[in-house]
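#help-structures
NK: newbie question, is this the right format to request a structure? protein is Lipoprotein
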Amino acid sequence: MKRFFLRGVGLGLLAVLSACSGAVSGPSASGGSVAILGWPAASGTLRFQSGTTVLTQSPVDSGGQLQYQLPTPDPALLTQQNLVPDTWRTKGNGCIVKTSYQYSPSTIKHLRVDLLPLDGSGKSLGSVILANQQPVLEPGQKYAYLDYFDQDTTMKGTIDCPSTFLGFWQDVTLNLDLEAKQGWNYVLAEYRVVKDKWIVNISSSTTLPEGIRWRLQQP
């Protein structure tokens, strides 16, 4: 079950989530000042990495504070994704559109970053996740991911889709309400259970959604 909710939900359906409304509680997705909860009492570094490519890195002080600024990624790093449901079905993903599904455009290019913390000697400290609490697979759990979109992107509707570019969902219904802007966005996944069925609400925001914190997750 771990891959179901930890790995940014994978790079499947592009972590679709609705532009969050309400109070702004955090920095812009493209950069700002943040604090990492659970950071050990020593300075280190946080790498923003896609695959084996380091996009940027920022020093972290002993209190877990850092400032970061994400660059525009090299186009060669972006992965092309087709938003048309029939394309997912032809890949054997078994997607079923349960309500009217709106998407724009038909094809995008997309990238997600991993957050890799290092101590002062360059040794891995595990990973950094963006969540409302420590990882526990339970209703109410929320995760956010830093995703780059090459253009404004909309995905709205309800889909049963075990595998998409947003991730591997394992018998989960996705409620998509994504309106991502060109550039860096937070993609938010909120987990619920209805009649023993897992439901994931997916949305997006250019600022850190309320209640989400940067957290150190040790290996």
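mod (FA): yep, format's fine, and the tokens are attached above. The chain has a mean pLDDT of 82.
NK: thank you!
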